[in-house]
Amino acid sequence: MSAIRNLRPFQAGRCHRVASRQPCVRAYAATKLYSNPASRGRIVEWYLQELGVAGDVEVVNLDMREKREHKSDWFKKVNPFGKLPAFEDGDMKLFESGAILLYLADKYGQLQTPLERARAAQWTLFANSTMTQAVFMEQIRERSMPEMFRTLDELLSQQPYIDGDSFSVSDVAVGAYLLYIPTFFPQLDLSPYPNVLAYMKRISERPACAATVAARAAEKKAEGAPAKASH
């Protein structure tokens, strides 16, 4: 998987015309990410910043506690399950953070072959199933987590990023959950996996991650309330 590729033609805050005689319109003006600081929307925000298109997407933070806007009738037209994050791009509506990541990677030219799409899907599904189950499900954690982390540590001993030599959407999908582990499960000892720890440090220092996922993890750690991130 190659690195974050140069974006095609739209840039944040600029006006674009499809043809010379058409009126000027804002690029992606109808693109919205419905999120909340406590949701996995921060993962999507991280990738938007990595792509350099955060300025083209309106982030709509919903009140999940008092107003419970994510359960409102109007929002269920975006995500019928009433969960965050959700995404709108014109008439297209999408939910599940992993699906949104893959859509963005495809839309912005990061996945150009069937193999690249399959590998990105492979790691996104791994992050949202194999890895999260091994860590978040207490009844299987003792059995499943060590084996999974040993394999991941071995992989990261051979390459700097999840899918090879360059940062990609796979690192956002997998890396976000890794970065949440010390906050939500401070009792878990990751020292037997030095390559995983080095990887976590490496991605957390990326400016886009530091401003989103890493910042959220730091906030939760300061609050001292390791509640799980909501969907």
3D architecture notes:
There is one protein chain. By secondary structure, this protein is of the alpha+beta class. The chain folds into two domains: 15-107, Glutaredoxin (3-Layer(aba) Sandwich), CATH 3.40.30.10; 114-223, Glutathione S-transferase Yfyf (Class Pi), Chain A, domain 2. The protein contains eight helices and six strands; from the N terminus they run βββαβββααααααα. The protein has helices at residues 41-51, 97-107, 114-136, 138-158, 169-184, 194-204, 207-210, 213-223; strands spanning 15-16, 25-26, 31-35, 58-61, 86-89, 92-95. The strands form two sheets. A four-stranded mixed sheet has the order 4-3-5-6, with helices on one face. Strands 1-2 form a two-stranded antiparallel ribbon. α3 packs across α4. It comes from Volvox reticuliferus. This is Glutathione S-transferase. Residues 113-230 form the GST C-terminal domain.
